[in-house]
Amino acid sequence: MQKIAINTGEEMKELYNSAFVLTDSNLERIYGGLLPKTRFVIQAGEGNKTLYSVEKAVNAMIKCGVKRGDRIAAFGGGLIGDLTGFVASIYMRGIKWSFVPTSLLAMADSCVGGKTAVNVGLIKNAVGAYNMPDVFVETKYLNSLPQREFESGMGEIVKMSLMDADLYNFMHGKFDAAEAVKKCIKLKSAIVEKDLTDNGPRRALNMGHTVGHAVEMLTGLSHGMSVLIGMKLEIAMLRELIEHNFFYEVQSYLYKYIGKMPLNLDAEAITVLAMSDKKNSGGISVMYPQNIGDIREVDLSRNEFLRLLKGAM
Length: 313
Fold this sequence. Notes:
- By secondary structure, the protein is of the alpha/beta class.
- The strands form 3 sheets. It has a 6-stranded parallel sheet with strand order 1-8-5-4-2-3, with helices on both faces. Strands 6-7 form a two-stranded antiparallel sheet. The protein has a two-stranded antiparallel ribbon with strand order 9-10.
- It folds into 2 domains: 4-144, 3-Layer(aba) Sandwich (Rossmann fold); 147-312, Dehydroquinate synthase-like - alpha domain (Dehydroquinate synthase-like, alpha domain), CATH 1.20.1090.
- It contains 13 helices and 10 strands.
- The termini are far apart.
- The longest helix has 18 residues, at 177-194.
């Protein structure tokens, strides 16, 4: 079972007890004076979640003398968590790591479950490993979060709310970020306990990601906003499988967070990227909500996917 501590004030102690810390340039500017000196700073931005950054981090760890029995730590959002976890999985055939998430997306979603990966070209998370960290969530870091990053985290929270009636009802009341984080961690942890390697119930968490990952890589939009757009389009693609009233309820719900989509999206380009999605086993995998808490999967051929996507746009 994954160790997750929430608002215990232990995060700095954990960072200083680690042999090496990875963070990004934005957080270095804000919190650099509080962080251990033995750290490596990645330039912020999805474009730096690459194998080249992995190589640079590994070289820095070797130079600092990080040993197989040491623990390293991530201080940052989803990008830093993904990168650090992947580095930890391959460094000297695997070392332990901790994660202090600083973004809403990382706190509510990516810190749970041990998925780590980097991008290769336009393929999102093409190379990765399952590598579970100890997690130290401190919601105070949300106070310095830019609006764009806050909105990105909301994308994953909205997605998870379609999987759980309690969270869905909570999202229709006054929003409290700290409470939302706790609810999402509890929900995702329960799912991951049943299915670590994404072969069963955990696949429901991929809702919105088939189209969403492609939108993210093609447009540079934040991950969460791309997932929201992905959900809206995927649900529209499969509207014939969804009860009429529920379809419009969900589309109205998503509209509150997306608004109008003025993007000139390329259905052909999205389809090409969707065909390379790691979730696929036969056709192109798409998850959709039949009802709150009832998430289902369909496999579409390339031509079916493209036809339905063009209709949804």
